[in-house]
Amino acid sequence: MKVFLVGITGAMGRTISNLGGDFEIVGGFSDAKDPQRNIYDDYDEVDVDFDVIIDFSNKDVVGRTIDFAVEKNKPLVEATTGLESQTLDKLKEASKSIPIVYTKNYSVGINVMYTIVTELTKLLDGFDIEIIEAHHNKKKDAPSGTALMLLDAVKKVRDVREVYDRSDVHEARDSNEVGISSIRAGSIAGDHTVLFGSDGEVLEITHRAGSKNVFASGAVKAARFLIGKEPGMYDFKDIISKG
Asked: Pick the catalytic residue: 136, 139, 155, 237?
């Protein structure tokens, strides 16, 4: 499998490059152009053959990446977080022409956690719910895409509204709100906790990423899945459920 890696010189790009395995990174996209390594800063200049695109870049690049994938008629694994609604709409439109996997987190554990949180929300009716996430001090978006993904799991069951900062709130919490708290410190790869609390008990489910390798491995798994697939939007949770 030949991979074109968008964000190749970034932290996740370097992580994928160091993974090893039965795939080859044949080139990529970055502001740091390097012709000797087939790294381009202009999609119009790309002159390398590849099977699939993996995008771990930033939200300002994603629109161009989608256009590039459609132009080249290549599958796309979109792994950039913090995407705006118009970019998500563009991604959905592109999925009519090419196969795409998009999720807010490529960890197997987090995608299992999504299912568990949905079930716990059903079972723990009336419990207050809080989501706490922690990441390294270089992460730009907050709350994390994964925190919002876990919020989606809750919203599948309950009609709730999210509260991101209570510093301006001077009243007791509403039973139908979900508090989301963000921590940025050191080199934390990614910690996420969903807390369910009642008057007499607290239940927490937590996922901790030991390294960025878990996200890189998941993205490569998704890329391998897309080879030969029909156009459409594929969900990573469906991929891991098939083994």
From this structure: 139
Q: Tell me the CA distances in angstroms from 31 to 34, 39, 61, 66, one per residue in order.
A: 9, 9, 10, 17
Instruction: State how far Cα 211 lies from the chain centre.
Output: 15
Catalytic: 135?
yes
Structure token pair of residue 9: 């010189």
Phi/psi at 142 (nearest 5 deg)? -150, 135
Residue 83, both tokens: 């995407």
- Token reading at 225: 């899945």
* Per-position DSSP letters for 158-227, written without gaps between them: ---EEES--TT--SPPPTTEEEEEEEE-TT---EEEEEEE-SS-EEEEEEE-SSTHHHHHHHHHHHHHHT
pLDDT tens across the length of the chain (243 residues): 999 999 999 989 999 999 888 899 999 999 999 999 999 999 999 999 999 999 999 899 999 999 999 999 999 999 998 889 999 999 999 999 999 999 988 999 999 999 999 999 999 999 999 999 999 999 888 999 899 999 999 999 999 999 997 777 778 888 899 999 999 999 998 999 999 999 999 999 999 998 889 999 999 999 999 999 999 999 888 788 765
**What are the structural domains, with CATH classification, of the chain?**
2-106+212-241 (3.40.50.720), 108-208 (3.30.360.10)
Strands of the sheet containing 177-184, edge to edge, are: 161-163, 177-184, 128-135, 191-197, 202-208
Q: Is 212 a catalytic residue?
A: no
Catalytic residue among 104, 135, 192, 212: 135
What is the CB-side half-sphere exposure of residue 109 using CA atoms within 13 A? 14
